[in-house]
Amino acid sequence: MTADKDYVLATYLVHGNEDFHKKAERIAVGLTVGTWTELPQEKKEKMAAHLGKVFQIQELPPTGNGVPRALLTIGYPTANVTPDFPAILTTVFGKLSMDGQIKLVDLQLPEFLLSQFPGPRFGIEGVRRLLGVQDRPLLMSIFKQCIGLSLDELEEEYQKQIDGGVDLVKDDEIFFRDEQAPDIERVRAFERRNRQRQERTGKKTLYAVNLTGPVTRLLEKAKRLVEAGASCLLLNVTPYGLDVLHRLAADPDINVPIMAHPAFSGALYASPRHGVSSPLLLGKLMRWAGADIVLFPSPYGSVAMPREESLQVADYLREESVHRPAFPAPSAGIHPGLVPLLFRDFGIQSVVNAGGGIHGHPQGSTAGGKAFVAAISAAVGGRPLREAAADAPELRAAIEKWGVAEG
Ligand code: 1AE
Q: Which among 83, 145, 91, 134 has a CA at the least distance from the CA of 112?
C-alpha cells in the first residue's frame, strides 16, 4: 500500500474471532474522533477532517490451530498529529496496544511529515567519509569488561582493539557506573589513541561513548562529550525513547554520528501477536529518529532474529527515502566464521560488529580484530574463508575455535 498525503497509515496484525471489518472501523473511529454515528451533523462537519479511515483489510490464512488472522491498515489524519514520536505512536498504538491480540507491523508517513523527522545526519556515506573506508563492510569492536576497570586499564584494552584493525569501537551498552573512568575522560584518552593511530598508520577510528544519565541532562551531556572530542555517541534508544534520539540527532551542536543500541527492544518486538514489529522499530523508526548506525540481532549469533526479519530491518535502514540510509550492524555472538554469511545477507553497506568474537580469540583482542579483518577481506574478494586462513594465522586460530558457519 502506498503512502497517502493526508494520512498516517498504520498496519496491524490481528488475531481473533472478531469481525475484522467491525474491528477496523472501531479502531479508525475510536482512536480519532471517539464516536461518529451518534454525533450531530454540525459536530460531524467539524470532526470530518479528524476522522480515521479504514484503508485495507487483508484476511490471512488462519494459524495452525485455526485462529483467524488479518492485516488491517488504518489511516489517521495528519491533522491529528504533531511531527514527533509521542504524538504519532500514541495516536496509532496508544490505548490500542493494550487491546487484545494486536501487533503494529508497519507505519507510513506522507513525505511532508516524514521530512520533519531528522533522519541520520551522517548515514552510511557520512560515516564512511569520516573513516575514509569505502570498499568493504566496516568492522566494529564492542568494549567488553568495562565496569570496574580503571581508565588506564580501559585505555590498554582500547589500544588492543584498534591495533587489531577495527574501524569503530563502542562502549558496552551496560556501562553506566563509570566512576573509575568517567565518559569525558574516556573520550579524551581514546580519541588521543585514535589520533596517534591515524598519525602512525593513516587509519581513522570512531569511538562510540555510551550516553547515560537522566534524560533531562542528556542533550547537555552529549554536547560536553562532543566538545571534549567525542567522535560518536551510543544511545540505548528504547529505554530512553525515540524522541530522545530525535532531539539529539536534530541538535546542530551534536555533529557526530549516533549509534542506536537495541537494548529493551525485544520487550516490544519479540511476541508474534503483540507489540511492534522489529523491522518497524529497529529499521524504520530508528532511522526516522536519526540513528546513523543501528545494532540489531543477526540471524546467526547468540541472540538471533528470524532471517527475514533481520533482513527487513536492514532494508528499512537503507531503502530509498527522504532520509539518508543508515548503517545496519547485525550483531550478537558474531565470530569470524560468520562473516561469509553476513556478507552474503547484508552486503558491503553494513557493519560487522563483535564483542566476544574479538576478545575471546585464543591469542587476544588484537588477534581477534585481525581475524575479522582477514575474514572481511576474504568475503569481499570472494575467497573461501578456510582458503584465506592459510595465509592469515589469526583467522586460522579463530576458525579452529568457532568454525565456519554454513548457510
Ligand atoms: C544486538 C546487540 C549485541 C550487543 O549488544 C552485544 O554486546 C554483543 O556482544 P557479543 O558480540 O555477542 O559479545
A: 83
pTM above 0.90, yes or no: yes
- Segment 99-137, tens digit of pLDDT: 989 999 999 999 999 999 999 999 999 999 999 999 999
d(C-alpha 320, C-alpha 51), whole Å: 30
Average pLDDT of the segment spanning 383-397: 97
* Torsion from C-alpha of 326, 330, 331, 334, nearest 10 degrees: -130
The H or E element that residue 218 is part of is helix 218-227
Pocket test for ligand 1, best of 278, 296, 353, 365 (most atoms within 8 A of CB): 353
Q: Is 357 in the pocket of ligand 1 (CB under 6 A)?
A: yes
Q: Please give the Cα distance from 209 to 175 (Å, whole number).
A: 10
Mean pLDDT computed over 198-208: 98
For the question of residue 95 being annotated catalytic, the response is: yes
Res. 44 pLDDT band, cuts 50 70 90: low
Residue 193 CA neighbour count, 13 Å, CB half:
23
The residue contributing the CA closest to ligand 1 atom 6 is: 332
Distance CA(61)–CA(253), nearest Å, equals 51
pLDDT of amino acid 364: 97
Residue 260 Cβ inside 6 Å of ligand 1? The answer reads: no
Count of CB atoms situated within 10 Å of the CB of 47 = 15
- Residues 136, 140, 142: CA angle, nearest 5 degrees: 165
CA separation (Å) from 274 to 99, 155, 237, 308? 10, 43, 20, 18
Smallest CA separation from ligand 1 atom 4, residue: 332
Report which of 111, 102, 115 is spatially closest to residue 73, judged by C-alpha positions: 102
pLDDT at 158 > cutoff 90:
yes
**16's grid cell:** 481473533
pLDDT at res. 41 = 76
> Which residue from 292, 359, 336, 353 is spatially nearest to 168, judged by alpha carbons?
353
Sign of CA pseudo-dihedral 255, 256, 259, 264: negative
